[in-house]
Design a protein that fits this description.
12 helices; single chain; 2 domains; alpha+beta; Tscrpt_reg_HTH_AraC_N; Arc Repressor Mutant, subunit A; Jelly Rolls; globular
Amino acid sequence: MSEEILKRQEELAKLIARHSGQDGVYQTNIPSIFFIHRSNVTRAVYGVYKPCLCFIAQGVKEILLAQERFEYGPADYLISSMNLPVIGRVMQASSDAPYVCFKLEFTQNQILEVLNDSEIQITPKENAKRAMFVGQIELPILDAILRVARLLDNPNDIPYLAPIYTREILYRLLQGPYGVTLAQIAMEGSSTYRIREAIEQIINNCDKPLRVEELAEVASMSISSFHRHFKEVTAMSPIQFQKQLRLQEARRLLLSESADAADVAFRVGYESPSQFSREYSRMFGSPPRADIKRLKERYDNKVHA
């Protein structure tokens, strides 16, 4: 790691710590930019990543996408180019050296605008690529990240400069070694673009029965081709993808509403409460009631610690 990169990482880590303070996820005053601060290693956290860039200024994190594992730290950046259900865990953090992360969420339209307004030449690829990847951080990308983060110390500059610096980050990423992979989400006609449309269909109709024939039609693919490309992009089958979304939503409902497990099962699309309980236990390690009780006790212990 070069001295220039190390110096900028240290500045960014201090800036994130100053603007976040305690543990948590903080939405900054800059649209679509978040700071994450953790002073301890964490247990597995389930969630859905929106299209985003994550750069860790200090600490190490592990992300599981189905059975695929991504580990990254200050030498790397992680990109999720689509909505993906994942499991995350902070692996390296302490009160003296907390985990601090910069996160930029972006849209397919923002990628398309940068491609249209720049001279970056990328052609659609027939073979879809994994929608999550880790790349080695480069000085131009880190400089752009630092420029937009510094705006928090000059809030009057945010409305004018934040959109410019955000576009620069995306521009630098598209120029990098994974630029072709990232660009595919915005290039109509590419296999990745068509799988993205099918993913949105699943997300928007998560509580309804999954019909692969309809999804294949949305993607303009044969059923066999759709299965192959979907797994290449997401590391899982359409059924597995929907199941993870359903179970994560069920857990959220059980926590936030203290609802009955059987009622929640029906709300997220299960026809059988017993099947829901089995699959919930398989994913989270305990049946719904025991899992939610454990989570609430853990939260109460933190609050009263």
